[in-house]
Amino acid sequence: MSSSLLYMIGGLAVLDMLSPTALGVTVYMLLNDTRKIASRLFVYLLTIGSIYFACGLVLMFGLEYVLNFLKDALQSKLLNWIIFLIGLFLLIGSFYVPKQNGKSPVIPASAGILTMFGLGITTALLEMGMAIPYFAAIGLMVTADLAVWEWLPILIGYNVLMLIPPIVLYVLHLLFAGWLQKPLKALRNKLNSSKDSPLSWGMSIIGVVLMLNTLDYL
């Protein structure tokens, strides 16, 4: 396993660390609801990480077979045109995705462990479709033909890195609760003011990738 592969995967992990939904929920909890926040935040983040990790395992064990199937399927010109048109549709459709409403995530005041578990599932499912860096990292590991004992620690480390920012925010909140209120509010406003939809970006990126990958076969 080359160091350049680790650098590329590490760079992708850094991109995936900035999850606006997970950060938004964490900031909301730190500013508005400090009641037993440690256990509920732990459940929320653990749920997200577990779903991502499970998805990564499925892809690592199954993606090689999928890639081999696609390699044979791409010999069909009709299928390539279909894939190209799907990519074009996604690219055009990305310009018509509604902007985000800029509202903070709403967490009921009585939110307990079960609620945070459900919120974690919702967050993971919403962001999984736009987790382009994560899928790219898995693709790199599959094409590098790594053994299980090589890619498994990388996959675990990747998922841990994704959860670092919310954990860091929580630790800083414990250490500097009074001082951190203003920066947290500024971060919340920054997240709320972002109107770009992750779905729009995800659709456009996937669309372009599909179109570029089929151009040589049309």
UniProtKB/TrEMBL annotation:
This is Sap, sulfolipid-1-addressing protein. The chain crosses the membrane at residues 6-31, 43-66, 78-97, 159-179, 199-215. Keywords: Membrane, Transmembrane, Transmembrane helix. It comes from Lysinibacillus odysseyi 34hs-1 = NBRC 100172. It comes from the Bacteria. InterPro entries: Gap/Sap.
